[in-house]
Specification:
This protein is α/β, with parallel strands linked by helices and 243 residues long. The protein has 6 helices and 12 strands. The strands form 2 sheets. Strands 6, 7, 8, 9, 10, 11 and 12 form a 7-stranded parallel beta sheet that branches. Strands 1-3-4-5-2 form a 5-stranded mixed beta sheet. The radius of gyration is 20 Å and the shape is elongated. The two termini are 32 Å apart.
Length: 243
């Protein structure tokens, strides 16, 4: 039987007894129909899994006690940050979900020339919280115990000004192939991906001016939500999880 995993936003230690958050309680008790003494795994993003047991189950709340803890050593040796051009609806959700599963450590949503998404302060806060929850759910499913950072959306120029990495890549279908295997192995990679319709040529040049290398990712043009999945897999094959 698979033991359920759940994220809790609090400090955890062996012996700690805690009241589970409402969303966790609803899923474990109302959906999975778990009962007292059944095991579960908790994590809070600090890189460890905490084996716990339900100690009380009521209609409106449940409690659990932490019994053991163990570091989960499945983070990639390659740290990847993705600057993702904002796209509409489920496309952005998909990109964040799959990037999290593939071990990306930071995702920065970006306003670009072709981004059709426009967010005021209230909507931006709601979308960021929504994306963070998608990342949490992806960590629960993929057995990650370290949450990726989901940054607040910002203009492309602002992100380029402070982005730092050993290797910087911008996906562009209008360039000569770049043989990544001939480069020195990096520890950190920054990857810039455009929205629907891609980046403007001027934006690619803007990225090149601060050290980004144009990268042609295969002979076909990928959707904005497919590109981070394919790119992260290639990077892991060369220098990360699959190397």
């Amino acid at each position: 039987m698979r033991i359920p995993r759940a994220f809790v936003e609090c400090e955890l230690c062996v012996g700690a007894e805690l009241t589970l958050p409402d969303d966790v309680h609803n899923h474990l008790v109302k959906v999975l129909r778990m009962r007292v003494d059944q095991p579960l795994t908790l994590f809070n993003g600090d890189g460890c899994d905490y084996s716990a047991r339900l100690t009380e189950v009521e209609k409106r709340q449940s409690t659990a006690i932490v019994e053991t803890t163990e570091p989960r050593l499945n983070e990639s040796p390659l740290q990847i940050e993705i600057g993702q051009g904002l796209s509409r609806g489920e496309r952005m959700d998909f990109a964040i979900q799959k990037a999290t599963e593939l071990g990306v450590c930071k995702i920065s949503p970006l306003f670009t020339e072709r981004s059709e998404v426009r967010l005021n302060a209230e909507r931006q806060a709601k979308r960021t919280k929504h994306w963070q929850q998608i990342a949490v759910s992806a960590c629960e499913q993929s057995y990650r115990a370290t949450l990726p950072q989901i940054a607040e959306p910002e203009p492309l120029a602002q992100w380029l000004a402070h982005c730092e990495a050993d290797l910087k890549l911008v996906l562009s279908p209008h360039t000569e192939p770049l043989v990544l295997g001939e480069l020195d192995a990096p520890r950190t990679v920054a990857l810039l991906i455009g929205p629907e319709g891609g980046l403007e040529e001027a934006e690619v040049e803007q990225a090149r001016a601060v050290g980004f290398h144009p990268w042609l990712l295969g002979p076909r043009v990928l959707r904005t939500e497919t590109a981070p999945v394919a790119a992260a897999a290639v990077l892991h094959y060369l220098w990360g999880d699959f190397s």
